[in-house]
Structures are given as C-alpha cells and as structure tokens.
Amino acid sequence: MHRRIIVPGALGAASLVLAIPASAAAPSPGAPGIGDPYYPAYGNGGYDVSHYDLRLKYQPATDRLEGTATILARTTADLSRFNLDFLLDVGEVRVNGAKASFAASGEQELEITPAKPLAKGAALTVVVRYSGVPSSKEAFGFTSWHRTPDGGVAANEPEAAAWWFPANDHPRDKATYDVSVQVPDGTQAISNGTLQSTSSRLGWTRWNWRSDKPQATYLATLAVGRFDLTTGTTESGIPVVNAYSKDLGADDGAARASVERTGEVADWLTGYFGPYPYNALGGYVPNTDTGYALETQTRPFYSPRQFAGGSNVSVVVHELAHQWYGDLVSVRGWKDIWINEGFARYAQWLWSEHEGEGTAQELADYTYASHPADDPFWTVRPGDPGPENQFDAAVYDRGALAVQALRNEIGDEDFFTVLKGWPARYAHGNASVADFQRYAEEVSGKPLAALFDTWLFQPSKPATPAARTASRAPASDTPAQPRSWRRITATNDVHEH
Ligand SMILES: [Zn+2]
C-alpha cells in the first residue's frame, strides 16, 4: 500500500505543506476516454485496473441483472474524479470504503467523485452496486447484450462489458477476474477461465469462475441459459469446459463435432505459437440469432449459425489462434486490429494445409486473384482500416495475404521464429503493428518497411512484382479454388453490431 496520507486541516499548516508539496499538480478529473482515436469514449484516464470481482444475480425470465462489482486499481494521476464505462443503473458507489457521488454522462460514462481527491500512485478500491435489464440499454445506437429464449449473453467486440459490469473498457487496461453469478437452479452461468465451484441454495445456483491471467474487458464474457456442459483435458494437460445450449436443434451435432475438437486444435496451435498461455480452455454455443464468433478469453463464443452448414473446425482454429494473437498480446489501439485478425485468419490457412484442403500459398494466390484491382477490397488498409472498416473482410483476407507476403520475404525459418516469438515477446501486454514490423525486422535482419507499407497501408492492389511476395503465381493465372475456401469465407461473418 502506498496510499498518500491526506493530513486533516486540524494538524496545522506546517503539516499540510509537508504532505502536499507546492509542486504537486492540483487534482483534476480523469479523462473520459483512454485516448484511442477510433473510439474516443472507450476506456478512461487516470487509473489502471488490476482486478474485477463481480458478484451477480441474473433472472432469465425478466433479464434482470443485479450485483456488486469490486474493482481494484491504482491511480496514475492526481484525481478529483474519474470515470467507469457502464450502462446499468447504479445504486451506490464507494471509493476506498467511503460513499462517493456519481452521475451518468455521455453514451456510457459513469462519473465518480470520491469524498476526497485521490493522489497519484495510490491503491484504489471501487465498489459499485447496480441492477438493470441489459437488453434495454443501448450505447451508440446498439446493444451488445444478446437476449436468448433461456437467458442472455454478453459477447461483442470492441465492446460488451458496459452491459454487465463497470469497467475501464479498453484492451490497454487488462486485469484478472472473479465472476460469481447466481442463477435459478437448472440454469447455467458460463464465463471465462476455470470453474472454481458451484453451490445451490433456496432454488438458486451460484457459479464461480476465475481468470487468473490478465484479460481485456471485451474478452470477458457471460452467458446464462440452459446449457449442457462437457469436460475434458488436452494432451498437454489443460482442462477443457465446453457448453452447448440445450436448444441448438439441428445445429447441435455440427456444433459439438467442431467445438469438441478445441483441445486438439489448441495443442496443434502450440506448434506454431508456443505454449498455450492460460490454465483453462473451452468454447460455448448459446442459442443466439447472431452470426459471429468471438475469441472471449479461454472460452470463445460461437453463434449456432457458424455450424448451420455442418461442422466447422476452421472457426475453432480462428478463435483459438486469437488466444495468442489478440488475447495474450492485445492491440495497443483498435487500429492495430491486423495483429489479431490477420494472424487468426492465417491460422485457418495453416489448418487448411494441415487438413490437405489447400496450402497457405494456394489460399494466398486464390485470394489475390479473386479480387480485381478495382475491387473496393483493396481500398481497405488492414494496418489502419478506420473504425468503420475495423472488421471488414479485407482486414482478414488481405491481412492474411500480408502475413504470407512476410513469410515469402523472410523465408520459413525466420517466419516461424517470428510467429512463435511474438506472443512470448509481448505476453499479457499490448503491441502495435509498428511493434510487429520492428520485431520481424529484428528476427530476420531485413528492412521490411516497404513490404508492410505495400500490404497493410496502401489503398490499392499490390502490382506484380510486389504481388510475387505473396502470390507466386503469374498474375494472369486463375488459380483453382482451394477446398477450404468456402468454409473459411463463411467465417467472415465474425463481428457485427
Ligand atoms: Zn477474429
């Protein structure tokens, strides 16, 4: 504890001078955003969270969520007040034990004014008591809470947290979590990490989940509904917990035939990305009418629609690849989305090669050839696509092309060293596209600015011979469609509002 002691006025002016040097900055409000130009209101300034303890109760019949969030943080500035991002109705806020005043502002801001200003570098405990109906809340014109016939689900990118817990909602502020949720007996509450325990009392069952490694707020998930759980252990010893809605209907078999391969896929990915970084694994398929999947940490979310055309291990590969590329190493700002999606898509290409359904090179050739120069596809810049194109298919497909271009430029040995070394280099932290370029240059000893500029930043189709670094085929050839193509393309329906 390094909390600065504020000396009461009764001790006299001399003591006050000692406690608060004249040079100290006057406490001021923390910024309402963390400073991401794509999403100026996301996250907040003035503090850094280390842990969220969420003790909740949810009633599926009414979609009412209530509970207490205890947030452990440290101030990074002298603060007169600070913000959390949150949408539900707040009943009480305490800061370091004392009642604080609070007010809602903007689209999703909860402004908290502690009884006394907070000194920079001090430990901070914030307790927020709240309740509300998440499906009734909108921010920026949409809701990230998916109501299901048997409950609700929080899973979206870049934001979902504000619908179920108050947070510093930006990947740059990661924290550990304890998520404890009480639901009616016969209903399950699914979240990230390990299931520590369950207990039942008076018709309610409490589910206690723990994420003991840093986790970005958008990677925290909650799903309540009637689920069938399966458990197992990977060959490398990681416990697996999967959950399937009991109402998946005709998609049930294909969903299980895909997600039950989670352990196998995660073990396979370690060969490319290094050791699996967490102590839990799994996936869950709620009965939502959404179309996308999301790499929620340790336990990805899959829409049933991902399995409507039959089993789809490729989407499992994509979401599990994110456990290294996106979750372990997260974007520094949302413009760095290529670090996540270019590599998760490339992992699908590697899986295709593993399955004998087309090599990464064949997929690169086909991707390049299937978009003519005047296709708007090439106007999307994966290295800085803008918030409106953050999840455009080009970020994925052109993004993976860029990865193949890098591979062909530096050769397999250095490429696979980069692929495995990157997650270790920035483990549990954040990094940018520029950081990735620097790292690849460091490993390969080659200048790569031109290659990165061509494939990630130019709003046009790279011409041959630049294209040769990604596509070895002559531009006039029309390569055959790899067998994995349609399945991989189907996973493009990944994020939506
Ligand atoms: Zn993805």
UniProtKB/TrEMBL annotation:
- Domain of life from the UniProt record: Bacteria
Q: Which residues form the Peptidase M1 membrane alanine aminopeptidase domain?
A: 311-455
Name the SUPFAM superfamilies for this protein.
Leukotriene A4 hydrolase N-terminal domain, Metalloproteases ('zincins'), catalytic domain
Write down the InterPro entries for this protein, in alphabetical order. Answer: Aminopeptidase_N-like_N (IPR045357), Aminopeptidase_N-like_N_sf (IPR042097), Peptidase_M1 (IPR001930), Peptidase_M1_aminopeptidases (IPR050344), Peptidase_M1_dom (IPR014782), Peptidase_M4/M1_CTD_sf (IPR027268)
For the keyword Cell membrane, the answer is no
Q: Which cofactor does it need?
A: Zn(2+)
Q: Give EC number(s), comma-separated.
A: 3.4.11.2
Pfam families membership: Peptidase_M1 (PF01433), Peptidase_M1_N (PF17900)
What GO annotations for molecular function exist for this entry?
aminopeptidase activity
Region feature Disordered, mapped onto this chain: 463-497
Q: Where are the transmembrane segments?
A: none
Please provide the record's keywords in A-Z order: Aminopeptidase, Hydrolase, Metal-binding, Metalloprotease, Protease, Signal, Zinc
- Give the coiled coil ranges: none
* Protein name in UniProt: Aminopeptidase N
**Which reaction is the catalytic activity of this chain?**
Release of an N-terminal amino acid, Xaa-|-Yaa- from a peptide, amide or arylamide. Xaa is preferably Ala, but may be most amino acids including Pro (slow action). When a terminal hydrophobic residue is followed by a prolyl residue, the two may be released as an intact Xaa-Pro dipeptide
The reply to whether Zinc figures as a keyword in the UniProt entry is yes
- Give start-end of the signal peptide: 1-24
Composition bias of kind Low complexity appears in 463-476
Where in this chain does the record put each Aminopeptidase N-like N-terminal domain? 50-219
